[in-house]
Automatic annotation (TrEMBL):
<feature type="domain" description="AAA+ ATPase">
    <location>
        <begin position="57"/>
        <end position="197"/>
    </location>
</feature>
<dbReference type="GO" id="GO:0043531">
    <property type="term" value="F:ADP binding"/>
</dbReference>
<protein>
    <submittedName>
        <fullName>NBS-coding resistance gene analog</fullName>
    </submittedName>
</protein>
<dbReference type="GO" id="GO:0006952">
    <property type="term" value="P:defense response"/>
</dbReference>
<dbReference type="InterPro" id="IPR003593">
    <property type="entry name" value="AAA+_ATPase"/>
</dbReference>
<dbReference type="InterPro" id="IPR042197">
    <property type="entry name" value="Apaf_helical"/>
</dbReference>
<dbReference type="InterPro" id="IPR027417">
    <property type="entry name" value="P-loop_NTPase"/>
</dbReference>
<dbReference type="Pfam" id="PF00931">
    <property type="entry name" value="NB-ARC"/>
</dbReference>
<dbReference type="InterPro" id="IPR044974">
    <property type="entry name" value="Disease_R_plants"/>
</dbReference>
<keyword id="KW-0433">Leucine-rich repeat</keyword>
<dbReference type="InterPro" id="IPR002182">
    <property type="entry name" value="NB-ARC"/>
</dbReference>
Length: 267
């Protein structure tokens, strides 16, 4: 009977241990990044140098650029590389959209606190209370916080406040379309996410449109025109490429390119 109890206890402990390991793995699961990361690695390397994850101090990096230029993709890829360095971390998407909802600021604070504490998100009914809870949840440990698509300085004030909130070694990344949101009192590093070069754009478009690095010769002229019409924006290249993927006849391409010319005249 004692042997049965011991075996049952050992089995129970083994199950708990396995569950814990699975949850840890899930918590470390990388965020989904672009299927074809063209031009991503060189930009990532530059950001890693700026943030110097093993260095001292608190660094708050602002990524800014027009919509569709790849700020979110870059932030997710960077977060995936930071996961192994920080026990306390959070990636909050669509900050702008959430902030617009009723009690949106408090919802964002609740999400951040839950992430940093690795538990359920608490109910926050007052942003001042939320600020106190955010500071407490850091517990004098370095943190990694990523805020995606911020469009108002107040969002920064209630979520990351000032750099002296943070323990040495902390890293914060903010993405925005509006550089003016990146308050100098909060942000001490900036990086403009620019459009892809012509060659990078053609490669990315080719992957989405043909599933290969270069377009077939008979489609190359039309492919280059679509690329120019996209303005080097990865999102536009993905949308146009995916739209053309199942169109195998030149006439279908010519018709679509003509429509794109009307949408973007003079490009």
């Amino acid at each position: 009977l004692d042997c049965c109890r011991i075996c049952a206890r050992e089995e129970s402990e083994l199950i708990l241990s396995l569950v814990k390991k699975v949850l840890e793995k899930l918590d470390n699961t990388p965020l989904g990044v672009a299927k074809y990361p063209v031009g991503l690695h060189s930009r990532l390397n530059e950001l890693r140098r700026k943030l110097d994850v093993k260095g001292n101090g608190v660094k708050v990096l602002g990524l800014y650029g027009m919509g569709g230029v790849g700020k979110t993709t870059l932030a997710k890829a960077l977060y995936n590389q930071f996961v192994v360095y920080f026990k306390k971390r959070s990636f909050i998407s669509d900050v702008k959209e959430i902030a617009r909802r009723q009690n949106g600021m408090a919802t964002l604070q609740s999400k951040l606190i839950g992430d940093l504490k690795s538990g359920a998100s608490p109910i926050i009914d007052d942003t001042a209370k939320g600020i106190r809870s955010i500071k407490e949840s850091m517990n004098n440990e370095p943190v990694a916080i990523f805020l995606d698509d911020v469009d108002n300085a107040d969002q920064l004030r209630v979520l990351v406040g000032r750099r002296d909130w943070f323990c040495q070694g902390s890293r914060v990344v903010v993405t925005t379309r509006d550089q003016n949101v990146l308050l100098p009192s909060v942000v001490n590093e900036t990086f403009e996410v620019k459009e892809l070069s012509l060659s990078e754009s053609l490669t990315l478009f080719s992957y989405h449109a043909f599933g290969r690095e270069h377009p077939p010769k008979n489609f190359s002229v039309l492919a280059e025109e679509v690329v120019k019409l996209s303005g080097g924006l990865p999102l536009a290249l993905e949308v146009f490429g995916s739209l053309l993927f199942y169109k195998k006849r030149l006439k279908e391409w010519e018709d679509l390119v003509q429509k794109l010319r009307q949408i973007r005249p003079g490009v």
